[in-house]
Design goal:
Helix content is 32%, strand content 25%. The mean pLDDT is 92. The radius of gyration is 19 Å and the shape is globular. It is an alpha/beta fold. Helix 5 links the parallel strand 10 and strand 11. The strands form two sheets. A six-stranded mixed beta sheet has the order 6-9-8-7-10-11, sandwiched between helices. It has a five-stranded mixed beta sheet with strand order 3-2-1-4-5.
């Protein structure tokens, strides 16, 4: 059976995965496009879907499948209904996460929390309708913002177990970011559960491991959610 390939080009890393129907066969991470080309450029795939937030389509000419080659955009047909008010501005990775969540939990209200460069919150309801959600700065972005937009605050590195009460400028900044971001995510989940009591919360993204054991509400860790969502979109479009 021929395999399909999905590629997710994010702000900081490139992820890819091969699938046989809905089963993930292998997954990969790359620091740059050259490494992806060296690893996968000579392989033959049936269908390919590429999701990129910052790479021109032409950069993927080295991938030539035997079937369809698709670039994810808000105009591409989706296995869910999209009622986002400005679909032309919607990040394709956000769509993929929503599609992945509904593929795993069909008929359920789902909240996806993608903790990466930014923290994206995506809500898809039990009917399979994607509404949107929220975007806030990620952990490293918060540290960089304090350093960039103030005259005296240093650029501080994250500390996973930051004390609640800092006793220096550095530890105060670490407390503000690390404890503050957990409080934000917990409060957001609480607000969704007040409105949608049975909502399923899925966590993914590069910073997901930091949150897994720190969030009080029950969540599902889904590190490959975006890749699975891309595969769901690919199979939906390859079927006709």
């Amino acid at each position: 059976m021929s395999m399909n390939l999905v590629v997710d080009v994010g702000n900081t890393r490139i992820k890819a995965a091969t699938f046989e129907e809905d089963r993930m066969v292998a997954s990969f991470q790359f620091e740059h496009l050259i490494a992806l080309r060296e690893k996968l450029g000579s392989q033959i795939f049936q269908h390919v879907l590429i999701s990129s937030v910052n790479q021109p389509d032409a950069d993927f000419d080295f991938i030539q499948p035997t079937g369809k080659k698709l670039i994810l955009s808000p105009q591409l047909p989706l296995p869910i209904k999209n009622v986002y008010a400005t679909p032309q501005t919607l990040g394709v990775d956000r769509l993929a996460g929503a599609c992945g969540a509904y593929a795993i939990f069909p008929g359920k209200n789902c909240l996806v929390i993608d903790a990466g460069t930014c923290i994206n919150y995506e809500f898809i309801d039990e009917s399979g309708t994607y509404h949107g959600g929220a975007i806030s700065p990620g952990i490293d972005m918060r540290f960089k913002a304090m350093h960039t937009f103030t005259a005296r605050l240093p650029l501080v590195q994250r500390k996973a177990d930051a004390d609640l009460v800092g006793n220096s400028t550095e530890t105060c900044m670490q407390s503000g970011v690390m404890n503050g971001v957990v409080a934000e995510v917990e409060n957001t989940i609480e607000k969704y559960r007040e409105k949608y009591p049975s909502v399923v919360v899925l966590l993914c993204g590069g910073d997901a491991p930091f949150f897994e054991n720190r969030l009080k509400p029950t969540i599902f860790a889904a590190p490959d959610l975006v890749l699975k969502g891309l595969n769901r979109i690919l199979r939906y479009n390859a079927s006709y």
